[in-house]
From TrEMBL:
This is Aspartyl/asparaginyl-tRNA synthetase. It comes from the Bacteria. Keywords: Membrane, Transmembrane, Transmembrane helix. The keyword Membrane applies. It comes from Lysinibacillus alkalisoli. The chain crosses the membrane at residues 5-23, 29-48, 60-80. The lineage of its organism: Bacteria, Bacillati, Bacillota, Bacilli, Bacillales.
Length: 82
């Protein structure tokens, strides 16, 4: 499978799971799904921008992906300790 298709499926799955958790009023899990979605989408954008030769934009997206990955870890810690 193409990497773009796999990434799209993962982002859609995270979005749908976030919506599900919002409806179920489990907001900690909804935030977790959202941070995972942002991590995946920004990482894919960083990769895509780098392929297009947009180095500066790629670096910004990579740092955003790292930020959201750290936020994901923090949300997991909050849920586990919670």
């Amino acid at each position: 499978m193409n990497a773009k298709v796999i990434t799209t499926i993962l982002v859609v799955a995270a979005s749908v799971s976030s919506l599900y958790f919002i409806i179920q009023e489990q907001f900690n899990y909804a935030v977790l799904a959202l941070t995972i979605m942002f991590t995946l989408s920004n990482a894919f954008r960083a990769y895509s921008f780098k392929e297009q030769g947009l180095v500066k934009e790629s670096k910004i997206m990579r740092y955003l992906a790292i930020f959201f990955a750290l936020a994901t870890v923090m949300v997991i810690v909050v849920i586990v300790k919670g």
